[in-house]
Amino acid sequence: MSIQHRSLVLNQNYEPLNVCSVKRAFLLVFSGKAEVLEIGEEPIYGVGNAEYDTPSVIRLQYFVRRPTPQRRLSRREVFARDAHTCQYCGRHSNLTLDHVIPRHKGGPHTWDNLTTACQKCNHQKGGRTPQEAKMPLITKPRRPSVNPAELFIMYLDNYNEWEPFLTGWVKKANQEMKYAS
Ligand SMILES: [Zn+2]
Description:
The protein has six helices and eight strands; from the N terminus they run ββαββββαββαααα. By secondary structure, the protein is of the alpha+beta class. Strands 2-1-6-3 form a four-stranded mixed β-sheet. A two-stranded antiparallel sheet has the order 4-5. The structure holds zinc ion (ZN).
């Protein structure tokens, strides 16, 4: 058993927000700003060796507004978003980055104008739009949402009890996305 050093902080709506020291989590709970959802394996000791439950997962009592974390736009990230699949023919090899609306036609270098194309398709499409080339896209490119679990996944080896809170949020986020589209 290892001594717990970190606590997972959830927003009021249960969205995983950040990771803080156990001491800070304890102060948040103690001052009434957060509630404990899950306690750690080991207690912490206060003045006079008093034992306290370790707050392992806490939830803020107020809502923190923060910008949605953004994924950096890069070739690697676009390939990952498209599951390393050519979005014209479904091949998985010789992948390149394609501007759906070509740059010389004013197509921007953005998430929703970049897609994964194999060399063959990219060459065949040339400087044309998918409509002009009669090459429909398998999926419409869009900015990928950041999966909050990914931001904290490296902690799961040490803090098993965080898992339901991370995966639970992902499921909820996916469901909301389904209803929204
Ligand atoms: Zn292809």
